[in-house]
Structures are given as structure tokens and as C-alpha cells.
Amino acid sequence: MNKGFAACGLVPALVLGTCGTVGAQPAAVEAPAQMTQVAASDGTAEPVTQESLQQMRRQLEEQLQQAQELQQRLNAQLDSLDKRMTKVEKKTDQPAVDIHGYGRLRWDKQNFEDFKGIDRKTVWMNLFVNHRINDKWSLHSEHEFENDLSNNHGAYEGDAGYGYNVGGKQYSRPVLQLYAQGRVGEVDVKLGRFYLQSPYKFTFDEKVDGWQASYGVPTRWGRKANFTLNSGNIYSKVFYGDRDNKLDPWGEGGSGNCRVLSLISEIPVAKNTNITSHYGKVTRRDDHLSCKTFSVGFDTKLNRDLKLSAAMAKSDSDTLNKSHFIQLQYKEARPDIPGSFDIYVKKYLQRGHTGMTNWFNDDIIDPTSGDYSKELNDKNPGNPWDHRAGEFNGLRIGADFVPVRNTKLLLHYTYGKLGLFDAGLGTLTGKQDDYSFFRAQWEVYF
After folding, report:
1. Which class for 273: exposed (0-12), middle (13-18), buried (19 or more C-beta within 10 A)?
2. pLDDT digits over 167-185, tens only?
3. Which of 127, 187, 225, 436 has its CA 20 to 30 A from that of 139?
4. How many helices (H) and strands (E) does the chain have?
């Protein structure tokens, strides 16, 4: 292609050079015959005249036009080839249907003061299916299957073995997420049932049946400041033991007839530092009871390997309305880097009325409102109900390790005090129970 461009450049140069010579030296027409003759096709000499030069110019202009037309046709063919190659690359790199997921083998051991705890082994599989509709829109779904190896309860049982009427998770629906995702102008949009996490999973960690709109603003730090607005139906336990709850203050199982409106912001303020916030309002449709929660936090890298995160939350509930955490993490375990690992320590003060969905976060449980409440009650008839907890104050120490690519081993130990409370009054009783929680988990990604 470079040779073609060079030829096209020489032709106009030759024409201009010839015309310039004629214009600059008009006396050449009257020069002696031996200086104004050119060889004809039959070998005889012909005199150079103005007409012959104009004819040569016309011929050169025609040749130049033909060369330009040829160049245009070649460029069009190259553009068409580029478009076809782009389509082939998209089909290869971004297939219309993509299926991936991970499996988990988990062992949990929960210990409580004054009554028998839980020792449970489970196996899980989560499948994610992504269908690309076009360049802007796609359809996503998540399917979760779980089996309890301790008692052989499976994913399709009505209560998953955890107590149908006492707040246990329902695993009878294998479709956990199903939503469309796309762009409307510069706004990212989700429509359907999707998983929403507030920053650090501090105040919100649950599915939403509704919509989400997210907008990013470029910053000088190379990362966007993201603002996400969410609205829809949710399951919430935030009204358990609330003083304004006149319907069921003792209803530790929560309600699925709630709606949420929330705004999440994540803003870079330095090269390795972000400021986060979350404002949310949960409203129960049955009686229009609502609870507003606001949280603010930050995360920063102290050096290449050390990361510090912290946040605090406050709700407008009369009681159990303040929470905070601080975490220090060394390095990062990444499933794509064999041998990578991390070690972390996390300090909690969690209170029930600051979480918009779960009573406590990070799978820390109250013995009467967690996934194991039915099993705990069967082991300790009547006793767990004397240990309703509205507060957890404690510490978690954990480590993650990637022995081979696409796997991860997780270990953590949590211990502290559960602050007991009276759900009818909505206040802590002043009594605290010892609590500990150990988890070992093996994850495989595919």
C-alpha cells in the first residue's frame, strides 16, 4: 500500500513541475529547433507546442484520477475486511452465550454460650449464564444449588431444612438472579432480579426485584466516581424488635413485602484512596413502616501490600442504630495467580437496626434469626429464644490462599460477644453471651 501512495504523490509532482517550467520560461517556444523537438512514436522529432503540453497534462490528470479511484476502492475493501474481522473477533472473544461459575465445599462451626451449637458441612454450585443480545444489551442469570452433607437436605426442599417459618433461606428457587443489563446514553441500567451489595457489604447484601441506574464520572485518578441508584422489592429483617413495629415486633423472620430506595457512591479522592457512602430507605408495604440508614466509609492502600478499610452506619431507628467496622488486610489472594494469598483482621460492632436486609453481616448469626435457627431449637428446645441478640461486638481473623489456578482456600475465625435484647422493648438487656464461628471453604472456579 505504501508504494501506491508514493506513486500517487509523484504523478501530481510531475504535472506541477512541467507546468511550472512552461510558465517560468515562455521563451522556450521560440528556441532553436534542436532544443524544442521531441521524439515522435515513429522515431521522428516533433516540435514541442502549447497544445502538446496541455494534452500531456490531460493524460497525466486522467492517470492520476484513475489511481485515486483505485485507491478509494482498495480503502473500501480494507474497511470491509476490518469490519468482518471485528465481527469474527467479537464472536470469538464475546460469544453470544457464556456460562461460568464456581463450586464451594464448606464447613461451618457455630458455638454459643449455654447451649449446643452447629457443625455443618455443605456443598454448593453457582452457575452464571450471560446472553449477549447486541452491543448494548445482555441478559444475565445466576443459578444456585446447595446440598447439606450433614443431613442430606437438598436445594429443592421447601425450607431447605432450615425452618420454613422462622426466617431460614428458601432454596426452592434455583434462579437467584435474572436481569437485563444495558446502556441508555451514558447510564448503565439493570432491570429484573439482581444482587446488590453496598460498599464492603456493610448495610446491604441481598437480591433486589426492581431496577438500577449507574453513572460514572471520570476523575484525575484514572478511576471513575460511580453513583448508583436502586429501587425495588426486597426481603428485610430491619423491623425486628423496632419500637414502632406494631404488627410483629417479635417477628425475627423478617418480611418479604418491603421496598427499597437507595443511592450508593464510590468516589476516588487519591491514587489509592476511595470515599464511599450509602443512603437507603426500607418501607414495609403492610403498614408503611420505614427505616432510613446512612453509612460512610473509605479504603486506602497504606503501601503496595497493605490495605485499610473502615465504615460507620447510623439509622433513624430508636435503638440498635449504630454500627462500625475496621479492617486491615495484607496482600490479596487472586484465583488467577497461583501462590497468591492474603491475611486480614476485622473488628466489628454490628447492631441489627443498621442493616437494611440482614440482621448481622458476614454470616454472623443470632441463634433465633439465622439459617440454623430451626436446627438450634431442635437441639436446645426453648433455650435459644432466651438468647435473642441485637448486637455483635467482636473480631475476625482470616486468611485466603490460591494453591493452584482457579481455586481458593478460605479460612477465618470469628469470636466476640452477642448482646442480648428484648424484642418487645427493642432494647439490650445488658447481658452478653460468648460466641465463636469458624469456617473452612474450598472454592473452584470454571
Report:
1. middle
2. 444 444 578 999 999 999 9
3. 225
4. 3, 18
Q: Going by C-beta distance under 8 Å and a sequence separation of 6 or more, which residues neighbour residue 393?
A: 348, 349, 350, 416, 417, 419
Most distant CA pair in the chain: distance in Å? 129
* CA end-to-end distance (rounded Å), the chain: 45
> Cβ atoms within 10 A of the Cβ of 87, count?
10
The secondary element (H helix, E strand) that includes residue 401 is strand 389-401
pLDDT-derived band at 315 (thresholds 50, 70, 90) equals: very high
d(C-alpha 97, C-alpha 91), whole Å: 10
335 and 408 in contact (C-beta within 8 Å)? yes
**Spatial distance between the Cα atoms of 267 and 244, rounded to a whole number of angstroms:** 35
Between CA 340 and CA 346, with CA 343 as vertex, the angle to 5 degrees is 145
**Grid cell in block for residue 123:** 456443598
- The contacts of residue 270 (CB under 8 Å, 6+ apart) are 221, 300
Tell me what the pLDDT averaged over the chain comes to: 85
Which helix (H) or strand (E) element contains residue 61? helix 50-93
CB 156 within 8 A of CB 175: no
Length of the chain: 446
Grid cell for residue 269 = 479522592
Torsions phi, psi of 257, nearest 5? -100, 50
Which 8-state DSSP code applies to residue 217? E
Query: Given this model, what pLDDT does residue 86 score?
Result: 77
Q: To 10 degrees, the CA torsion angle through 352, 353, 359, 365?
A: 0
Q: Which helix (H) or strand (E) holds 11?
A: helix 2-24
Residue 38, classified by CB atoms within 10 Å of its CB into exposed (0-12), middle (13-18) or buried (19+), is: exposed
Residue 279: closest CA among 262, 258, 296, 260: 262
Q: pLDDT value at position 88?
A: 72
3-state secondary structure of 116: strand
Over 70: is that where the pLDDT of 443 sits?
yes
Distance CA 377, CA 253 (A): 14
Looking only at the bridges linking them, the beta strands covering 407-422 and 389-401 are: antiparallel
Confidence (pTM): 0.76
Confirm if 410 and 444 have CB atoms less than 8 A apart: no
Question: What is the CB neighbour count within 10 angstroms for residue 193?
Answer: 19
**Best CA proximity match to 129, nearest among 141, 117, 121:** 141
